[in-house]
Predict the structure.
Amino acid sequence: ERSTRCPSHTSTNGSMAEATGPSKGAFEEALHEQFEKCHDLFWKHMHEERNGFDQKWSVARNDSHATVYQSSVPGTSTAAFKTIGVIPADVHRVCRVMFDPANRTTWDPDTLEMPVHHESVADFEDGPVLRHYVWRQLLGGVRGLVSARELCMRSFVTSTDVGGILQLTESIDHDAFPLDQSVVRATSSPGGGVLLQPHVTEDGDQHTALSVVVHCELGGSLFPMVTNRVTPRSLGALFKLLHDAVTTDQLEGIVSEFDPIPRALASADGKSAEQLEE
């Protein structure tokens, strides 16, 4: 099996700022342009009936925790997937459980490690406040059948108009996470992401409406038809694992310096992102 190469965004020392331009202004301009590209395609994918490539969504799986939709993508045999469900915890707790690498490996058995290399905050005069970071996700394989996979990802995390959180992702090559010959590098296309929106139940409980859009080429010798068949079940199982994780105390003892909450979510009285989580 061979790794799938992604567009390179590297520098000699792994600095994203130096990779995209010699000045902070050039870096932020390039960052903003890529954010807009990912942002626009994600919201097109969120359309109820058709994806961002004007292909019809169809229900691939429906269970008590989530509904998984599937659609074709022009130019590839690998399908795109959209999963929608409600998680019984507020947005900040779900965000912390999902995005913090120290938490992810405790509830997602497929993730073996998830180190974050780079994090920055960019303020755009005419746009959002973003948290931006690069991370690697190592996924366990099935011995003798499927090799382990890794993803090297760039993420944009920002807030929504209704107090939610949006994480947009795309694969890149970065010298902080060089290709590992022992695993296969998968790629995630622009337009994928995770949307967490406040959802108040009839009883007044604060829950989270969670939407996940994925279009991932697993690479290697794995046939797309196999990926398309297995992915809906995997996404449904992931929603159940997340549901269980946020309703137990297994995460309470974890302390991490990683802060996935955008500063744009700070309230008018000056509370920090950390205080909002408490």
